Prior knowledge:
The chain is α/β, with parallel strands linked by helices.
Amino acid sequence: MAQGYLSSSNEMQSLEDVGNQYVKILMMRSFFQDTSMDKFGHIESFKMHDLIHDLAMSVARSDCYLDTERKGIVGKPMHVAFDNGTNCSLDVFNVCKLRTIIVTWAIELITEKLKYLRALDVSFSPITELPKSIVEVITKLINLRELNIEECKAFEEMLPAGLGKLTSLQCLSNFVVGDYEKGTTGRLNELKELNNIRGRFCINNLGWVRDVASESHETNLRSKKYIEDLSLLWGAERYGSGECEIKNSDSLMLLDNLCPHQNVRELSVNGFPGVKFSDWVISLTNIVSIKLYSLPNCEHLPPLERLPCLKDLEIFDMKKLERIGDNKVGNENEIHVSVPPFPRLSSLTITRCPKLTYMPPFPHVQNLVLSSCRVKAILETCMVKHETSSFCPLSALERLQLDEVTEIEGMAEGWMKNLTSLQSLSLRQLSTVEVVLPQLQHLPSQLKQLEISFDSDKLHLWKEENHKCDTQLKVEKIDPKLLTSQTFTYTEIDSSKG
Length: 498
């Protein structure tokens, strides 16, 4: 592709898509083997037969130069890669012909003469500061299609102004909002024309945006239909308390204007300071995974249960969150609804959400982790009967982990009876172990792993409960195979070390 061998009669089809089609054809004909796919079904890597490899190396011998091979330069290479710490120089190359450069240390190699460069990889470079001349050069590489700056220290706090001119960019690992007091820092609206960005994309330091209305409105994320994995990170505030209050009042506007295209399949939001989350999240009909971390002021989340493809939901450190979705109607467990919520949700993790009192039922979940939150309201909503559901709520649950949860004493008696598919149960740091122990008799026989930890002053309750049963360690009806040190773990917590 970088050499101009690919073409397409369809103007709407990118060269990357054409290249992927060729790779798939070669795979079907066994030129490539042992293919590895990413989570979106895209090809990440593959192997080729030794004979095919030798043929490829023979054909590309004069086009590629790997400094690690310590061989002389043959022909006029188009793709070069330098080893760490090597005395790099492009003087021996025809720089006008170079299409790809992979370099860790000598970023100063980048010059205006590399006007046909398609790919630049400076990931994991330890260089902490870029010369001004290099910053200006990067923004002039208008043919650049891939810029990998992942973990490059020089780009941790800012990207150069003018990056928006690189409209051919298709791979940009992350965009960093910088300190506006520095005139060379790129602003959020640099993203306006970068509509070919694809795959995984991360925007860092959104907490540094000052002119929220104009900058975020021009971001134009909705037009970036090739982004599949989007991360929005606010990061640390860089203002005084008064300015922080102003920014928090604009936070919802900022998030609203960052509405992505509905092709997004994974969304991660970290540090958003607003009280209310944007409603556009429920328009993401193809979303598979949502991860919300450290939203300190958010009290309510939109009805995520309406998302038809959502499989994985993680909510972490939202101390003011009170409810997810619409309020529950009625006060009994026998609630009937026509449309089942969370139709495909299989993994749910909720951590450090002490005020969460309502969440729609999640009857299909297979992996459930609840930590430092109120467990009663969450689990009791799973006892809802659905008109379109043919099985009991939580009957598909295979792994349940409860850590430092509260209100477990308010759970309905026999709530473990529905856990007919459970294979792993972890109960950690329970303050009311006496309530849980009698429930263990309802655990299914196929349980493979059991872990229980509680305060040392509750140990006598554990012994009393075991004494009532006919097994050596635990409650009856549990497979004897569990009664081995490999599958059963008991941990006594020394409360004096709190």
